């Protein structure tokens, strides 16, 4: 009996274990995918959390600060001026007197007297696209007379210069005043000199003879101040026929 009872209990235990195992295999496995609601909750939670702040930028070095300042100054210097008074298509005429002309070496042993030089210059603006200013071209016609007295003699020599020169100017207003026009330029042309003296037989003294046609060059820096929109005064320093010129100017 005891062996039969033990065998029945063992069979019963085995059957019960088999039913439990079979029941577990029939249960659906848990899904590893995240549902839409769970995903939405996860997204909301992540968006509600603050993003990590970006790393702090490094302080610029002294060299970088200096380069930035230089670039700022250069950009300001070469920014086109809205108050410029001379543009492409404008025409200007200067009528002036010239002082402090060169004596061409004639006063080495004496003194040269000279009349103020007379000049008329013309220019027209041709482009506003050449840098921040305006480029102009034109010409100059000038006249100058001077004479030389040799010391302790009655000898006198005289010269007359007529200049015909082309001029190129660059206008850039260095101020914020719309009545002022500042410019600089170069000249290139010819100088026709006529010579005479009171003693035609003196060969030695004729070494001062500068008669003929000569190449003439010059450089100048100038400014105009317009009293009205079209009329004003001008002054130029440099050299083409004199070191200083001043007079009246007109703009059309």
Strand percentage lies at 35-45%
Q: Measured on Cα atoms, how large is the radius of gyration?
A: 48 Å
Helix content: 10-25%
CATH-derived architecture of the domain at 89-251: Beta Barrel
Quick one: overall form? elongated
| Structural class determined from secondary elements | alpha+beta
N-to-C CA distance? 141 Å
N-to-C SSE string, H for helix and E for strand: HHHEEEEEEEEE
Main pleated sheet:
8 strands, antiparallel, barrel
**Averaging pLDDT over every residue, what do you get?**
76
Give the total of beta strands: 9
* CATH hierarchy, class of the domain at 89-251: Mainly Beta
Strand order of the largest sheet: 1-3-4-5-6-7-8-9
Query: Number of DSSP helices?
Result: 3
Uncertain spans:
26-34
CATH topology of the domain at 89-251, what is it called?
Answer: Porin
